[in-house]
Amino acid sequence: MYARHNARFFTPLSMFLREYYRNTLNLVLLVVIPILLIQAFGNALSRLADLFSGIILTLNMGKALGALWSATFLSGIMGFFMMSGAREADRRLVRAGYHPVQVVGFRLLTVVMLGAIATAVSYSVLIIQFTPRNLALTFGAIYLAAIIYSALGILVGSLIPGELEGSFAMLFFFVMDAFIGSPLFGTTSGVFVLLPTHYPTKILAAMTAQQPHDPIHWLYVTVYAGVVITLASVAFYRVARLR
Amino acid sequence: MNAQPNEKLRLNTEHVAKTYTTGIWPLTQKNQVLTDASLQVRSGEIVALVGANGSGKSTLMMIIAGALARDAGSVAINGRIGYCPQYPILYEKLTVAETFRLFGVAYNMVASDIEQRAAILMADLAFGRYRDYRVEHLSGGTKQKLNLALALLHDPELLLLDEPYSGFDYETYLRFWEVSGTIAERGHNILIISHFVQERERFDHIYRLEEDGYVREA
Fold it and tell me: For chain B, which residues make up each domain, given as ranges?
């Protein structure tokens, strides 16, 4: 009995992970994106901020932002392509006997685990460059943002059937978030603070500048993650449920 | 599934209707596919549902399989169903053996039963040598065999097959009918969708889905 329960839990989880690591491009991106965004773009980002708002972004902040972007970008495309590529097969799995909530749960668990890897790679590249104020909180801020993007990827992948259209939607949202929602580029009010990496960026900026941050930001980020995960679950459920 | 089937009826669909709505309001368009689709499958029968392209055969099959909501009518099924979609719906990065394991677990089967059934099905449909191949590396015909084998894995009482042999070579086509015969002999049932029926004698009943959305016995 326990063996059957264990199999019903671990089999889909391990299969979904296999799907990811058997795609060579995923593994290449996992290594290339963090190095590219942190190492090469760090400097460029710090100069770019000057153009946007006149705020001077230090090199370390540029690199920290690169780490945040690489983890969120990787997690977002991971969630999206996992969902859009396997949506019909997941529906078949539901028809075979899994409840839609179970399947979306496995998908979320998979992206949470893969998000941890994406975060760990980005974080490792980052802390080679400099030491932020608190290592654990820095990891936590990047990881929560990665989870939000993973769930966003699942949400978009559930709602938009075409890979091309969905990729554009993800990219558009990512660019909006990275450049308009970031407090480092001068956005501090209005609807733009509702973009997903606004508060993780604030936490990260404080960590990079060796300054304290407002603990309420963690609440915002956690609630944000909860809302996006719920929306993604509902969207998947609507796609996969039996009629 | 609100109608109650009697013991002999494995599947009873009555007055099923379906209209697709496309576009965004106020520019929506309606396309009525099924007007009044009724058909029955009794124990041990092999039944065909034929019709022209776009007549709504796959729509009716998906409604019976629970993959699509109907607008009206009822569907009653007595027993486990296995559904084989028209095109292979599989996880491309998994191997054939992993695919069997994943779907077997979904069907709530134990590991030994999954192994045993998978071995039988791979032998019956002659694709055992691809056991450790990834799905993405299989030919179209072998993917179709796996697609069919997944629908058969849990030994369903009612098998719903949407154009099951479209990618099969002649030898596999004959093997398919051998497997189908064995299924029917055990009192299980098969409902097959096809554009046309070449060998009428293989079927107990043939229903035709007309362009007006009605189902009539052919």
Answer: 9-217
- Tell me the pTM: 0.87
Residue B81 DSSP SS3: strand
Q: Which residues pair with B207 in a beta bridge?
A: B49, B217
Q: What are phi and psi of B204, to 5 degrees?
A: -80, -35
Q: Which of residues 120-149 of B touch A (CB under 8 A)?
A: 134
* Selected residues 70-89 of chain B with any CB under 8 Å from a CB in chain A: 70, 83, 85, 89
Distance between B131 CA and the closest CA of chain A, angstroms: 16
Number of domains into which chain A is organized: 1
* Predicted pLDDT at B55: 86
Structure tokens that stand for B34 in this block: 């099924």
Which is higher by pLDDT, B97 or B184?
B97
What is the CATH code for B9-217? 3.40.50.300
CA distance A119 to B108: 35
Distance (Å, whole) CA B34 – CA B72: 10
Interface of A with B (CB under 8 A): 3-4, 7-8, 11-12, 15, 18-19, 22-23, 85-86, 88-89, 91-93, 95-98, 242-243
pLDDT attached to residue B62:
92
Chain B residue closest to A13 (CA)? B102
Alpha-helical (H) ranges within A160-215 are: 163-175, 198-208
- Supply the ipTM of this predicted assembly: 0.88
